[in-house]
Structure formats: C-alpha cells, structure tokens
C-alpha cells in the first residue's frame, strides 16, 4: 500500500503519505472529489486486486491436489474403532467393511461376548 500511495499520490511528500497510510480516516475526512481521497481509493483498489489474485490462486491449489486423493469412505461414525456416532448410537458398517475382532456390540455399548461372560460368572453391571 505505501508503494501504491507513492504511485497514485506523487504530489504529496513522504510524511503526508505515511500519515494517510497510518490513519485512513485522514483520507476519508476529505471530500469525494479531493485528489488525495481519489488517489487513496485507487491505491487501495490496486493493493486489494493483487491480494485477491494471490488468495484466489493459493486457494486453487488444494482443490487441484484433492483430485489425486484416494476415495476414502467417510462414514457417520465418530471414529472407525468403536463404530458409534457422536451421540453414542451404533453405526452400521459400510458394505464390504470388516468388523473389528468379529464381535458385535449390544445396544448398551458393551461387547456382547463380555457381557455374556460376566453373567456366567455371576457378575452384573
């Protein structure tokens, strides 16, 4: 922006340009037809154009890179280990997905085999 101010406001000295750069209200307080205000607007527009082009080009990179990512299954589960969603409810596995350890969970969150073993030993939860 300081460089653009020097391009668009060559008739001001460095001190006045630094004052405008330091406080935009100095330029905004001037009338709309004032050359200082018009030069400040032009400098700001030029600076914003450069920043927007840079930001747009930078944001395109992740989109292009995502085209080469593998097609991972993103299910409804909170994670792939406990097969539960964020509310704690059981999530069905995806087609072709293998359940871990061959055990199924019961409705109360425990492993069915563990609960059966506890009952056989006389323990309840």
What about the largest sheet?
none
Instruction: Quickly give the structural class.
Output: mainly alpha
The Cα radius of gyration reads: 32 Å
Q: Write down the overall geometry.
A: elongated
* Poorly predicted residue ranges: 98-102, 112-121
Helical residue percent band = 40-55%
How far from one another are the termini? 69 Å
Beta fraction: under 5%
Query: How many domains comprise the coordinates?
Result: 2
Overall strand count: 0
Tell me the number of helical segments per DSSP (H or I, 4 or more residues long): 5
User: What is the N-to-C succession of helices and strands?
Assistant: HHHHH
Which whole number gives the mean pLDDT? 74
Biased composition (Acidic residues): 94-109
Region (Disordered): 91-125
Biased composition (Basic and acidic residues): 110-125
Structure description:
- By secondary structure, the protein is an all-alpha fold.
- The chain folds into 2 domains: 2-66, no CATH class; 72-125, no CATH class.
- The protein has 5 helices and no strands.
- The protein has helices at residues 2-8, 14-22, 24-28, 35-66, 112-120.
- α1 crosses α4.
- The longest helix has 32 residues, at 35-66.
- The radius of gyration is 32 Å and the shape is elongated.
- Mean pLDDT is 74; it is low at 98-102 and 112-121.
Summarize the structure.
With about 120 residues, the chain is an all-alpha fold.
Topology, element by element:
Layout: H1 2-8, H2 14-22, H3 24-28, H4 35-66, H5 112-120
Region (Disordered): 91-125
Biased composition (Acidic residues): 94-109
Biased composition (Basic and acidic residues): 110-125
């Amino acid at each position: 922006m300081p460089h653009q101010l020097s391009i668009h406001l060559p008739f001001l000295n460095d001190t006045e340009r630094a004052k405008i750069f330091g406080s935009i209200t100095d330029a905004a307080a001037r009338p709309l037809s004032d050359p200082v205000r018009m030069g400040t607007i032009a400098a700001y527009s030029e600076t914003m154009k450069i920043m927007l082009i840079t930001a747009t080009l930078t944001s395109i990179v992740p989109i292009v890179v995502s085209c080469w990512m593998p097609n991972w299954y993103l299910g409804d589960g909170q994670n792939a280990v406990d097969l539960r969603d964020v509310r704690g409810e059981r999530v069905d596995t995806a087609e072709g997905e293998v359940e871990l350890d061959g055990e199924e969970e019961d409705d109360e969150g425990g492993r069915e085999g563990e609960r059966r073993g506890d009952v056989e030993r006389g323990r309840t939860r």
